[in-house]
């Protein structure tokens, strides 16, 4: 058993004990024969955990903000769990290539939060560019998590909807217009998936502290 697999088992136990079982729809939309880019909404610091515990045994490599890697011990643990640092304002070519390598060589799915921050609802560019380099499908995912620690321990159930993949089009010219079109598809998928989970749902970003 790898460190990643061991950590997921522990997280599954903790989340089921204190928060209960998540509501998940659309698992059939996950590609079965290849790795993929999972593009998810970002509304809680717990979002990556909800993804990895509910989609296991699928394994993911996530980008995370650079500041998390300043602590020596946390740095080691994150890297063992396939998490790697990124400058969210200006991702370097090296970081993007590493994300592509995780899919093409290490056979890990790549987890991305296109809004960058959980305080934002805007889909930023970058995910489509990674698709251009990797030629992998993008799987949009909407997460409606408990937004506070209190809600988590009150067992407010997380809801997760997995959408149909946005397939890499080998015949397309992935120019600026095409990349923008894909970003729009991701944003539209998020809205549609939120509606599937809860037609009355409206995410209001918390005040940044």
Report the span from N to C terminus: 39 Å
**Domain module tally:** 1
User: Helices and strands: which structural class?
Assistant: alpha/beta
Order of helices and strands: HEEHEHEHEHEHEH
* Residue-averaged pLDDT: 93
Number of strands: 7
Work out the strand percent. 5-15%
User: Main sheet, how many strands, which sense, barrel?
Assistant: 7 strands, mixed
The number of helical elements comes to: 7
Low-confidence parts, pLDDT < 50 over ≥5 residues?
A: none
Q: Level of helix content?
A: 25-40%
The global form is globular
> Which quaternary structure do these chains form?
single chain
* Strand neighbour order, sheet with most strands: 1-7-6-2-5-3-4
Which radius of gyration do the C-alpha atoms yield? 16 Å
3D structure, described in words:
The protein is α/β, with parallel strands linked by helices and 209 residues long. The chain has one domain (3-197). The chain is 39% helix and 15% strand. The protein is built from 7 helices and 7 strands, in the order H-E-E-H-E-H-E-H-E-H-E-H-E-H. It has helices at residues 3-19, 47-55, 72-80, 93-104, 127-134, 149-153, 176-197; strands at 23-25, 37-40, 60-65, 84-86, 109-112, 138-144, 159-162. The chain has a 7-stranded mixed sheet with strand order 1-7-6-2-5-3-4, with helices on both faces. Helix 1 packs across helix 2 (47-55), helix 4 packs across helix 5 (127-134) and helix 5 packs across helix 7 (176-197). The longest helix is centred in the last third of the chain and has 22 residues, at 176-197. GO terms for molecular function: acyltransferase activity. Pfam families: Acyltransferase (PF01553). This is 1-acyl-sn-glycerol-3-phosphate acyltransferase. InterPro entries: Plipid/glycerol_acylTrfase. Residues 36-146 form the Phospholipid/glycerol acyltransferase domain.
């Amino acid at each position: 058993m790898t460190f990643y697999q061991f950590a997921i088992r522990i997280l599954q136990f903790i989340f089921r004990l204190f928060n209960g079982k998540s509501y998940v729809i659309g698992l059939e939309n996950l590609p079965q024969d290849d790795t993929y880019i999972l593009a998810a909404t970002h509304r809680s610091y717990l979002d990556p955990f909800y993804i990895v515990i509910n989609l296991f045994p699928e394994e993911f490599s996530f980008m995370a903000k650079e500041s998390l890697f300043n602590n020596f011990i946390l740095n080691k643990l994150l890297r063992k769990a396939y998490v790697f640092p990124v400058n969210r304002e200006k991702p370097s070519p090296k970081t993007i290539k590493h994300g592509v390598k995780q899919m093409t060589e290490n056979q890990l799915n790549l987890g991305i939060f296109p809004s960058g921050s959980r305080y934002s609802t805007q889909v930023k560019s970058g995910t489509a560019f990674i698709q251009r380099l990797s030629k992998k499908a993008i799987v949009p995912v909407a997460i409606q998590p408990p937004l506070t620690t209190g809600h988590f321990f009150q067992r407010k159930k997380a809801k997760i909807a997995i959408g149909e993949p946005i397939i890499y089009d080998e015949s397309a010219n992935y120019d600026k217009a095409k990349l923008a079109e894909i970003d729009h598809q991701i944003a539209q998928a998020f809205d549609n998936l939120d509606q599937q989970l809860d037609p009355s749902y409206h995410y209001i970003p918390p005040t940044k502290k």
